[in-house]
Amino acid sequence: MSEDSHPADSPTPCQDIQGDGRWMSLHNRFVSDSKGKEPDVLFVGDSLVQLLHEFEVWRKLFSPLHALNFGVSGDATQHVLWRLINGELDYISPKVVVLWVGTNNHGHTPEQICGGIMAIINVIHQKLPHAHTLVLGLLPRGKNPNPLRERNASVNALVQAEVASLSHVSFLDVDPGFIHSDGSILHQDMKQPLSRKHAV
Amino acid sequence: MSAEENPAAEPAPVIDVQGDGRWMSQHNRFVQECKDAEPDVLFVGDSMVQLMQQYEVWREVFSPLHALNFGIGGDTTCNVLWRLQNGELENIRPRVVVLWVGTNNHEHTADQVAGGILAIAQLVLSRLPRSKIIVLGLLPRGEFPNPLREKNAAVNNLLRASLPQLGPVQFIDVGGSFVHSDGAISSRDMFDFLHLTASAYRTISTTLHELLLQMLEEMPQERRASLV
Fold first, then answer.
1. B22–A142: do the CB atoms touch at under 8 Å?
2. In a 3-state reduction of DSSP, which class is residue B190?
3. How far apart are CA A192 and CA A186, in angstroms?
4. What is the pLDDT of residue B68?
5. What is the mean pLDDT of chain A?
6. For residue A113, which of A149, A158, A146, A75 has the smallest C-alpha distance?
7. Does A4 touch chain B (CB under 8 A)?
8. ipTM of the complex
9. CB–CB contact B21 A106 (8 Å)
10. CA pair distance A17, A30, nearest whole angstrom
């Protein structure tokens, strides 16, 4: 569902190419969900966030924190930016926003992706001046070493450096060591697009 | 519609556009699994199949049937055809093959999609002449009525009519309970109005499991002689 042709830091909704309007349905549902709830924690991002909600770990670890999940599979930074500017932050005051996005920014350089993530952090700070943002590092991907792993590692280094001076933002690398000594990732730890295992 | 005329029946691998070669990695892993395992049931298809294995229901209901899962998210009939022709049916003799694919065939008409699914069923029967096949109908999708729901329903109607002619092939439509009286699909059943939640998988698994047990019971167990 993501598009590469837009800048990583320019708010862009997802076009309904397939014909069932699901992206907008999800956005609308998040906005209406947020009107009824008072979450302390908001998770926002791509499929890695979205899928978290579907597994037992959500119920055990995150529901008790009064958490909302605004993850949409396939989203790149420009899509998350659009969603947050267009209603998803308007009715809630979470204390912490957990942001996990960037791995779907195909065609963007690490600098551009970092720029997209920083743009999101700025929007969150504008709309929720009292919230702390926790940015999660992009995970390695692909069975063997490949350019996307390098790209994601570069993004992480850039973001980590940029947020170091910001008191309202923290960076967390949640990779517990998915890459083995031979450079491979096991399929038991990560499946493909939608179904990454959440070894939280 | 012959394979030459139907683009949905043209085998095609997924090209690695993103740059991490994940599709081919998965295909290669499945080919290797064919060498290591002796499944009685083989599930093959797109994310509908793949995601099933991530939930508890797989371990509880399907693993005990000695099932393998060869689902890859995003796959079209063309991709599944290519995978099955290029090693994913080698060295195994599952008694039942469960096929669930078609919802990602965005470039194709309902007729073409149904033709692609038929082509896969025909391929499986030619390679595994003693196997039976279960074809799952395409689920409705999208929060509200939309053209893709109509298209998927049309595919199902075509399959319902044409699959029985192939022989040991059963079609089941497990999507009946997901569209409510107001035409809406709930995110409690499909968390993104396409993919099923754990509880929705439990609902459909009951029907599927019963049918599988029935089919497995009807078929005498093959002696595990060396596979030719």
1. yes
2. strand
3. 11
4. 97
5. 91
6. A158
7. no
8. 0.89
9. no
10. 21
Tell me if B53 and A146 make a contact (CB, 8 A cut-off): no
Distance from CA of A73 to the nearest CA of B (A): 8
**pLDDT of the residue at A177:** 86
Q: How far separated are the first and last CA of chain B, in Å rounded?
A: 33
Report the alpha-carbon distance of residue B74 to residue B8 in Å, rounded: 14
Which among B114, B219, B126 has a CA at the least distance from the CA of B158?
Answer: B114
Is B195 catalytic? The answer is yes
Q: What does the alpha-carbon distance between residue A178 and residue B88 come to, in Å, rounded to a whole number? A: 27
Q: How far is B173 from chain A (nearest CA, A)?
A: 20
Q: What is the pLDDT of residue A73?
A: 96
Q: Rounded to whole angstroms, how far apart are CA atoms A43 and B118?
A: 42
Whole-angstrom CA distances from B35 to A36, B72, B90, B227 are: 53, 19, 8, 11
> What is the rounded CA–CA span in Å between residue A13 and residue A115?
18
Helix (H, G, I), strand (E, B) or coil at B193: coil
Do B53 and B201 meet the contact criterion of CB atoms below 8 Å apart? no
For tokens 């683009």, what's the residue?
Answer: B7
- Cβ distance of B194 and A142 shorter than 8 Å: no
Q: Rounded distance, CA B88 to CA B40, Å?
A: 14
B173, B186, B195, B209: the active-site residue: B195
Q: Identify which of A20, A147, A191 has the shortest CB distance to residue B50.
A: A191
Phi–psi pair at A97, nearest 5 degrees = -115, 125
